[in-house]
Write a sequence for this structure.
């Protein structure tokens, strides 16, 4: 659907959750309209739900589709939804804006998503409530014990009671109460799906594990979906930040398209992942379905190739890891050869690198230097396997709709800059220069990081541009790199890709936006 107008209310203002879907839309000729920065959540500061409601109702009549994060419109954002004390009645009242928007525009297709509250792997008091910094380990133990008891019965009663006793009662009650409120919000969203208010709904699990309260919540939501009979328009699976991109692909290209999946190892579908509750192959199928894709019977019959670099056996945090990642269970040279052959055959190829979380694999990137990388339909290697896969699938599905070469090059390069150059290389260098501070809270070192980051990034970005993108009728200008939030996980790397005849005012941040689009503070 070219020239579509899509409204996006994202989970927050980070570039992958805000700028990437805007850029994917722009490369197809669609306009993705987002609320002003002052209305959106900034790290753990909630967005202005009243302003978001007003913005949506003002624009609903002129839009073709709406992609909306339930937590943002009802509780101020994905991270604030873990922290704010707003009651369920307040959240449900805010949810009614989706019915109001449909009443204003009965043809508006609403694609909504909610994030099942995670049980954080780290004792991070910023993305969670402050007490998680002290009691995170004990809360994780309770989460695991509760779910094991719920699934397997009294044999786990003693472990559950011990885990319960290890946490102050008031802390546990607050933590569980937050989960119950958010689960009730998702149950209400299922009702909106059943009555036709929503076109499609994704309920995703952020940083999940096979056992835990998130898995318990998932089963309760799935049971309600069974009762309502809404599975044709519902996806429940591990994911979070990438969902705006997946739903954008579904909105702009509603038809179901076949996808051929290539893994870096013959057993890649069975590889284990660190932040998901299922093996790689099942995660791939879940993300394909969320974006409106199915597995193809052959490469020749596929709309695009999804090339997935899986770990040999299991993901690991630090690379190189020769125990579970870079093992004889996969063959990277053959994997890259297959990508090269697909590109030579004229197939659209989107690469998803999930060997390691939080950045591209250095060895794969080295091998890919012999490929015409600017010809890729997409590339992604950021954060969790789910974040990576959802982004890569969206790139691939939208490849057939690309009308703006500069827009596509900007979106593709932005992922390489973030996922390979920053996440995979510069982040660890920067942390070492700063004296190994906590990646969760840079404190007063944020200013030093922001001063040093452009010096580390600019020559690396320019080198990639010269090797893979230059000489194609496009030009690149770099803005000042900085961190999105006072932590090392997410950077902002403004870049401008132009082709002849593009108005400078329409190009920003690696993507081309409408000239009057609001400035982002991510």
């Amino acid at each position: 659907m070219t020239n579509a107008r899509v409204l996006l209310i994202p989970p927050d203002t980070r570039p992958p959750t805000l700028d990437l879907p805007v850029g994917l839309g722009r490369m197809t000729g669609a306009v993705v309209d987002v609320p002003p920065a002052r209305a959106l959540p900034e790290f753990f500061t909630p967005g202005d739900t009243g302003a978001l409601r007003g913005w949506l109702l003002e624009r609903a009549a002129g839009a073709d589709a709406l992609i909306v994060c339930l937590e943002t419109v009802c509780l101020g954002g994905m991270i604030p939804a873990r922290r704010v004390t707003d009651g369920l009645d307040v959240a449900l009242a805010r949810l009614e804006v989706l019915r109001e928007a449909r009443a204003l525009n009965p043809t508006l297709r609403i694609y909504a998503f909610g994030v099942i509250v995670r049980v954080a792997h780290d004792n991070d008091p910023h993305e969670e409530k402050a007490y998680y910094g002290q009691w995170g380990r004990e809360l994780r133990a309770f989460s695991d014990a509760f779910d094991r008891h719920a699934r397997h019965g009294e044999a786990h009663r003693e472990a559950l009671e011990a885990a319960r006793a290890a946490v102050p009662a008031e802390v546990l009650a607050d933590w569980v109460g937050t989960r119950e409120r958010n689960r009730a919000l998702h149950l209400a969203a299922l009702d909106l799906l059943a009555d036709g208010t929503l076109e499609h709904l994704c309920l995703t699990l952020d940083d999940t594990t096979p056992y835990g309260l998130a898995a318990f919540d998932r089963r309760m939501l799935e049971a309600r979906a069974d009762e309502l009979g809404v599975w044709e328009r519902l996806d429940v699976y591990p994911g979070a930040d990438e969902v705006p991109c997946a739903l954008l692909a579904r909105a702009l290209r509603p038809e179901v398209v076949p996808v051929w999946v290539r893994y870096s190892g013959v057993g890649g579908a069975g590889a284990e992942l660190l932040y998901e509750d299922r093996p790689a192959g099942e995660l791939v199928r879940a993300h394909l379905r969320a974006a409106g894709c199915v597995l193809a019977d052959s490469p020749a019959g596929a709309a695009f190739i999804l090339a997935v670099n899986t770990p040999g056996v299991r993901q690991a945090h630090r690379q190189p890891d020769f125990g579970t990642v870079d093992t004889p269970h996969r063959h990277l040279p053959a994997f890259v050869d297959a990508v090269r052959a697909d590109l030579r055959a004229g197939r659209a190829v989107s690469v998803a690198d999930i060997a390691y979380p939080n950045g591209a694999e250095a060895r794969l990137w080295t091998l890919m230097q012999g490929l015409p990388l600017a010809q890729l339909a997409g590339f992604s290697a950021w954060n969790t396997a789910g974040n990576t896969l959802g982004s890569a699938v969206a790139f691939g599905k939208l490849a057939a709709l690309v009308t703006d070469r500069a827009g596509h090059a900007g979106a593709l390069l932005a992922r390489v800059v973030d996922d390979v150059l920053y996440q995979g290389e510069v982040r660890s260098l920067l942390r070492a220069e700063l004296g190994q501070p906590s990646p969760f809270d840079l404190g007063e070192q944020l200013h030093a990081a922001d001063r040093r980051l452009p010096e580390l990034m600019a020559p690396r970005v320019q080198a990639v541009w010269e090797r893979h993108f230059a000489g194609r009728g496009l030009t690149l200008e770099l803005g000042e790199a900085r961190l999105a939030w006072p932590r090392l996980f997410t950077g902002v790397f403004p870049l401008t890709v132009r082709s002849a005849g593009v108005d400078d005012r329409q190009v920003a941040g690696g993507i081309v936006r409408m000239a009057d689009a609001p400035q982002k503070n991510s």
In short: The first strand starts at residue 5 and ends at 9.
